[in-house]
Amino acid sequence: MSKALEALETFRSTLEEHHEWPCEYTFKFIVPSQSLGELKSLLDGIVHSEKESKTGKYTSVTATATADGSDFVMNIYHKAATIEGCISL
Q1: Percentage of the chain modeled with pLDDT above 70
Q2: Which one of 3.40.50.720, 3.40.50.880, 3.30.70.260, 3.40.640.10 gives the CATH number of domain 3-88?
Q3: Rounded distance, CA 80 to CA 75, Å?
Q4: Which pLDDT value is given to residue 7?
Q5: Could you tell me the residue ranges of all domains in the chain?
Q6: What predicted TM-score, i.e. pTM, was given to this entire model?
């Protein structure tokens, strides 16, 4: 098993161990401000807040959604990973 696949399985196990589904799950991202629209599109329908950095170069985004399982959470992170420069916390 590759290290990346192993890390994903570890993350899935951790989610399953620490959450009872459905539950409120908080996502946190830092994204280049020029890519904010892309992230907001991904979070369509999910309540979120934004805070721009002092220089305006980056925006931090906190989103809270009702997750029905680890697949929902992992799907959001997987899609966010396709946004150039996006950091998931």
Answers
A1: 99
A2: 3.30.70.260
A3: 9
A4: 86
A5: 3-88
A6: 0.89
Residue 5: what pLDDT?
81
Distance from the first to the final alpha carbon of the chain: 25
Q: Compute the distance between CA of residue 84 and CA of residue 89 in angstroms, rounded to an integer.
A: 15
Q: For residues 59-72, b (16+ Cβ closer than 10 Å) or e, as one string?
A: bebebebebeebee
CB contact set of 27 (below 8 Å; sequence gap of 6+) = 43, 61, 62, 63, 64, 65, 73, 76, 77, 80, 88
Report the side by side order of strands in the sheet with 23-32.
47-52, 58-67, 23-32, 87-88
